[in-house]
Amino acid sequence: MLENFSNSKYNIGNFYGRKGKMNVEILFLAYRPLLYKYLALLFTRDIDFEDFKQEGELALLELLKRYDPQKGDLSSYLKKSLYYALLRIRTRLRYQEEYVEELGEIEIYKEELQEEKIIDFSSLSKREKEIVMLIYFNELSIRKTAKILGLSPSSVKVYKKRAINKLKFWCKI
Hints:
The protein has 2 domains: 2-94, RNA polymerase sigma factor, region 2, helix turn helix motif (Rna Polymerase Sigma Factor, Chain: A); 119-170, Orthogonal Bundle (Arc Repressor Mutant, subunit A), CATH 1.10.10.10. 68% of the residues lie in helices and 0% in strands. It has helices at 24-42, 49-66, 74-116, 126-137, 142-149, 153-170.
């Protein structure tokens, strides 16, 4: 169905309303099969399909809103852009799943360390605790830690430095 958008029946001009605005709802419904095709192609068992589908639908809507007819064909734009948007979403969802699992492990580590009185984490903020655990206990790089927490690498470095300074006061690192 989507391959036939070049003929007159599916010409992009047919999707414009009276005021010249593109009817995003109709285009969304027309391109939803393409979205589902890509979802089936890119889905892996380590992510939740419903989350992946919802994020994909939001990405499709956003791409339709950003489309500029003067820059080229909608069909080719969506095929490429939607595919790469779904790849980014899949990567982010994978990191979120790993992050949720790691948070459970971090809580266990934190309880064990606090019971042994090795390190006092009470002086650290929640974000600083997360960063210390991910970098030092899970041995993740600053870049991966930043991706998991949704921060920039420079922000992670700042939080890490603050945490280390606070911990140096309580113990020698």
